[in-house]
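PROTOCOL LOG
Step 1. Enter all chains and additional molecules of the complex.
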Amino acid sequence: MKKALLLLLIIALLPLGSALAQDMPHAGVEIVATYMQSGTYDVGAENIEDAFEAETGIELELVASPWAVLNQNHITDLTTGTGEFDVMSGEFWIASVYDRMLPLDDLVARDGFGGDYIPTIWQPGPSGYFDGKRIGIPYSADAYGIVYRTDIFEEAGLSADWETWDDYIATLDKLAMHLEGTDIAPSVFSWGAAEQTPSIFLGMYDGYLVDADGNYALDEASALAALEKMASLLAYNPEGAAGLSIDESNAVFLTGNSATMICWVSFMRASAQNPDASLVVDNWAVAPFPGPGFPFLSAWNLFISEYSENPEAAWEWVKYYINPEQSTQRFVELGVGSPYLSTYEDPDLMDAYSHDFPGMVHNLGRAQSVPWVFEAFEIFFRNTSELVIGSISAEEALANTLAGWSEVTVPPALVQSAAAQGQQQEM
Amino acid sequence: MRRRKSLRQRLFSVIHAFVLALACLVVIVPLGYLIINSIKLPREFLTIPPTILPTEVTFEHYQELIDDKKTVRYFQNSLTVAVWTTGVTILTGTLAAYGLARARLSAKILALVTFTFLFIRFYPRVTTVIPFFLVMRQFDLLDTVWAIVIGQLGITIPFVTWLMLVVFQDLPSEIEEAAVVDGASVWQRFSRVVLPIVMPSVSAAAILTAFLSWNEFLIASSVARRKASVLSIAVASFVSDKGIQWGPMAAMSVVMIVPMIVFALFAQKYLIRGITFGAVKG
Amino acid sequence: MPWLIAFVLPAFVIVVAVQFYPLAYSALLSVQEWSLTKSQAPEGFVGLENFVKELGDETFRRSVRNSVWITGGAVVLEMLLGVCLAYLTMGSSWRMRAVRTLLILPMVIAPVAAGTLWRILLNYRAGLVNHLLGLIGVQGPEWLASPDWAIVSVILLDTWQWTPFVLLVAGAAIASIPGDLLEVAAIDGASRWKTFAYIELPLLTPLLLLTLVFRMLESLLSLDSIYSLTFGGPGFSTYTMTFYIYTQGLRNFNFGAAAASSWIFMAFASVSIALVFWFQRKDW
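Step 2. Run joint prediction.
Step 3. Record the structure below.
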């Protein structure tokens, strides 16, 4: 009797079961996704891991590693064809393995994905492309910016509406006079984090990064002028600024010891409004990043590995993690810059971030990523760093960089990225 | 009547005390500052002048570690790796050293074997990371603590073998001769006569191996992903591409250091005695 | 004899099994052209070209020079301080035992954490070191922003962390010098300095040399601490040989170049190890 009842029950439930299976075409599938361990992107993923598993039936494993280890793991995995990771977090640093990533154009078109992105971020460069096909979906966006002390600017009768670096430097001169006799420096920057110095250079430089033949190159006259101008900025910084790391530079601004700071905004935004971490709460704002160059863009992408056995399930995670709602939530909760316009147009947020959004949107709209593999990047930043500490001249820094670059090949994907962003020399 | 110390002797003892106090300060001050950093509010990290006594004590950084369930796993993994690496290393390394010391090998062969061991010990690990990864994949050991243990054994066994080889070579062979006359086997000679004498050195080698294994980063980071991640990777993870999370990093460092300090204090007498016995040739 | 071979076998098998393939692979790569930005697989045998290229590479040569300064400075300091402290902490009173325990603590800190700790201590204006120097009226240098002081900073970190190693080994060695030898010398009226120079030092020399070579190779190989203290900077100031090999191998993925420079390093390491053997042989 009991057995018969049970059987009946099972038969009754069968249609329901198959309906569930239709809703969850990937139920039981296991996928692995990677993130940088930073307490931001990775935490954002962990926060929605359970909900994703419940809704899709997919078993998701998240792997977070420090920056250097993350890149190393990806490249090891892809070059050895191990296929351990289905979804990978990365930027252009791993362009040498872009050919091992799955083209996503069909999936993007099928699901109508990608509508409301900030246009600059949805293009090749910030978005991973290989051989003309999209392989990466951006999930974060941060542009170099200049933050300034609204109270000090008001006191001094200055406004932060510079368009060029010369305008900015003229403002610093006025600030220097106004602040004379105080401990407050006109400007601060993380000069000691050598890999950051190219960000200022890129803002000042007006020329190509890849020549017509697809090799790393610079317009020498413009580059030289930019290098010299960059080095001259150090004089407006507090004593000993040549050794400041990113945190140390942030701390100078947050403890009220500088009137402006050139920085990644997403890395100071949360601290700056936290009274436990900052003395400048409500007294700062984001200013436009001066030209003629562009603000350096950091945009993390999700890629799907060519070796993934479950690309459809992987794509489910990509869509679940990257969308306007999630991006806005990550911005609010974790300070991660959103690549979607809607975040910056949300009326409540616009109100709460009135000091932050106008400048940020302006900068993101102009921001570009660079076509440098790490080796090219390092040759350049080590030499600019030598220039900053006065070991070599701007001419030497330029000559050393170009000599070093002559040994480095630009991966095809990054030549395309440069071309798409107008960074390639015209024929 | 008590003899008064000469001026020179007194001067010497004052200088002696002063130098030792200075040396202790050089060790204590940075360590103390690390502990202070772990209970500081973020805004007091890089103040000018530095905040030596925080105005407000916070345990938020420790709380974060405790709340993160991964911390416990890192801790367990580090412990597993250290225990297994140390155990296997001491067992095989001590045996090998004894074998090499007593095998009456020709000087050339002995030199060759020892040289091979040391060569492997000092080969830059960054270059062998990828082939090692491939081997581990072949045996399906990626993301297991065993891959880390196996990788570390390649460094620690040569180290311990070298250390213990010196110890056994110093040991006068007369000690064993009586046992030989009694008809004891090699194993009996080793386990009953030799081992008890060199135990302090074995302890010293074990302690140094445990330190090395506990702090090792490169091998662990190349084969561990999630399940097998360890504390040394966790500490490094507070350094991101946009800066350092000082508070949590300090707290994690303290968490990581404490067991080793306790271990060091506990084992200190063995360490000193072990090295005394082992490293010096009569 | 078979027994003794059986003793050696487990260790030998493990070490060779774990390391043989990686080493052979690396040897193979050192004579091949392979850079990941150019190709996904090795591009064929190039003979000694990688070696010639590395030896002529300005960055490599500079990294070798930096390594020589940093390791040279650190190891000399460690040996001097270690031996001095070993003498000063002799004895078995509780006070001396406590001091010795305290002094070995820097050795147990993970190098990456030690590097970060010193980074904050050596901050120019917000660092504890310059603050303390200021209290005694000394204006501290820009530790991490000046090329020369950055080298000094790395030397300081290495010395802080590894002097305990020398202290332990040397302390043990000194304690084991037979007391009657020193008494005889004292009766003969030898001064403390002469006793040290003519009796103790010769006895300690072989062991100290061994420690020296061990520390030297370890220091040349250190990566985590430099990575977190200076990241090789400012500029190329503290860009060491190991940092170079790491960058070539695991950041730029120039596998051929990384393998070749590793073998150049091993040529040097082999000579050092052979020297230790030579000294040990004389002693046996």
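Step 4. Note key features.
Chain A has a mean pLDDT of 90.
The interface with chain B takes residues 36-39, 61-67, 69, 72-73, 76, 80, 82, 84, 183, 245-248, 250-252, 254-255, 257, 264, 266-267, 271, 274, 276-279, 298 of chain A (CB under 8 Å).
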